[in-house]
Amino acid sequence: MRTIRYLLICVLAALATSVHADLVLVANPQSGIERLTQDEVINIYLGRYRRLASGVVAEPLDHPADAETRARFYRRLVNKSTAEINAYWARLVFSGKTRPPLVVENVDSALKRVAAQPGALAYLERSQVDGRVRIVFEFGD
Amino acid sequence: MIGKFIASLMLAGFVAGTAQADADTIESQLSLRGFGTIGLARSSSEHAEFVRDLSQPVGIKGGQWSGRIDSILGLQANWQATREIELVGQVVSRLHYDRSHNPEVMWAFAKWEPDPRLALRAGRIGADFMMLADSRLVGYSYLPVRPPVDYFGPLFFSHFDGVDISATSQLGNGLLRAKLFTGSTHQKSAGALGVWDTSGSPVKGIVLDFASGAWQFRMNAAQIKFAADMNLSVISVPLQNAANFGVAGAGLAADSLRTKGTVTRFLSFGVVFDQGPLQFQGMLNRIKNESSLYKDSYAGYMLAGYRVGSFTPFIGISRWLTQPQEHLPVVANPVLNFHYLNTIDGSHVDRSTLTIGTRWDINTNTALKFQWDVIRTSANTEFSLRNVDSAWNGKTDVLSVTLDFVF
């Protein structure tokens, strides 16, 4: 019985951890959008098409290159490593086609930017979301 | 030569690395970036030199390791002048038609993007004659050591001076992008017939691109109208003289070798599947020449890779095949006719390549690549190679090791 209780506690703890480590994408409440599909997020973050359905120009924000969150975001979004994402951007940037997302220094900067600009989008942990922004995309399990 | 080149690479890397400190901050409007390849390759045959593309005057042969064909350094500055206007300049050092590594201005354009659906660029811009052709010098951006030579080799145009306009719209679950471009070239190539200056030749074309999920499809159609002839005096002068003396067919033969005023048309189709660790791409192209100096050709390749940890092994095949010309004039003088046909046969290509290799991402901006190319041609294929001697048997194996980086 003690073993079962112990296992149950471990499972609940693991579930709680996964919930807190859950990445979400947030937008400005004035962006005119309620939700984004994964394809739309891919198009925005990979520079293919940066226009929201509301007509607002999307301005995706990235975390610093060595941030664990950034690696996890792209792994979840397109199952690509940081090196593969960098190679992708090397092709677009050095052929003069488009720019990668702007880099913010930390989560506070991201939240400020999203709160101030209708088109700004940022990914962060669900636990870091506050009332200034709206969750528009979350990864399914 | 290579020592100097590597020294300049290191110096440029230091300078750009210093600039990088300001490059990624959110408010910076000026960014400096760079890319480069330090490459070594060896080709087993003693009898023909392997080149990366037709702009290279010399290649590698005889089993000697050389950094000549693949080593490249590029620096790029982007200035976001306003939210809608960006200025981009890129300089590249690589092996040129004149054997120098002098910096070459690849791009220098202004981009106006009033809306994510519309972009206009004017200045010196990348030649999008074929899919991925405008980023083929950035080794870090693709899997193999170099873009398939059988496909991209004849395409020595990297840029042109002009404008392009692209429009993007959603179509079903995908994105459709159309681009029109027009301008004139500024480039030279080197070959058995000497340097060919194509400067001032007008180009124009269209690119249609459809991307949906992991799939991307592209169609390119482009054409160039050459502004100058090649230096063919060794055959054209005797033909013209013969024509003046009334030798039948000589005048027509001389005219058929002219490139000035003739049009070459490019048509290509490409498909890319890129999902998670799996990458696949395949492309086909058709090149048609009005001048008889160059034979029409087909080319294609397939390349697949699968990432396992930090390694991405890949395998590819490619093919380049020209077609014999029809309705050629016959010169009544047999000796002249022989030399005329010999000149035309100089553009014959029947060549295929099997490529096996792996990319190893050492870190997030540096990759080491190892590659083995098994190249097989007909014995009379000289056009895609350099300094071919009579003992060439159509077989060579190329081993390559490159270090690709971005900063």
Based on the model shown, name its key terms.
heterodimer, A: 141 residues, alpha/beta, five-stranded mixed β-sheet, 5 strands, 43% helix, globular, B: 407 residues, mainly beta, 16-stranded antiparallel barrel, two-stranded antiparallel ribbon, 5 helices, 20 strands, 14% helix, disordered N terminus
Most extensive interface between two protein chains, with residue counts: A-B, 36 and 46 residues
Separation of termini of chain B?
Answer: 24 Å
Widest sheet: strand ordering of chain B: 1-3-4-5-6-7-8-11-12-13-14-15-16-17-18-20
Task: Bin the strand percentage of chain A.
Answer: 15-25%
**pLDDT average of chain B, as an integer?**
89
Span from first to last CA of chain A?
30 Å
- Biggest sheet features of chain B: 16 strands, antiparallel, barrel
Q: Report the uncertain regions of chain A.
A: 10-20
| Helix share, percent of chain B | 10-25%
**How would you describe the shape of chain B?**
globular
Secondary structural class of chain A: alpha/beta
Low-confidence stretches of chain B: 1-26
What gyration radius of chain A follows from the Cα positions, in whole Å?
17 Å
Order of helices and strands of chain A: HEHEHHEHEE
Q: Give the class of chain B from helix and strand content and strand pairing.
A: mainly beta
Total helical elements of chain A: 5
Count of DSSP strands of chain A: 5
Q: Major sheet of chain A: order of its strands?
A: 3-2-4-1-5
Rg of chain B = 22 Å
Order of helices and strands of chain B: HEEEEEEHEEEEEEHHEEEEHEEEE
Describe this structure in words.
The complex is a heterodimer of chains A (141) and B (407). With 141 residues, chain A is an alpha/beta fold. Chain A contains five helices and five strands; from the N terminus they run αβαβααβαββ. Chain A is globular and about 35 Å long. The two termini of chain B are 24 Å apart. Chain B is globular, with a radius of gyration of 22 Å. Chain B is built from five helices and 20 strands. By secondary structure, chain B is mostly beta strands. Classes of the chains: A alpha/beta (141), B mainly beta (407). At the A-B interface, helix 4 and strand 3 of A face strand 3, strand 4, strand 5 and strand 6 of B.
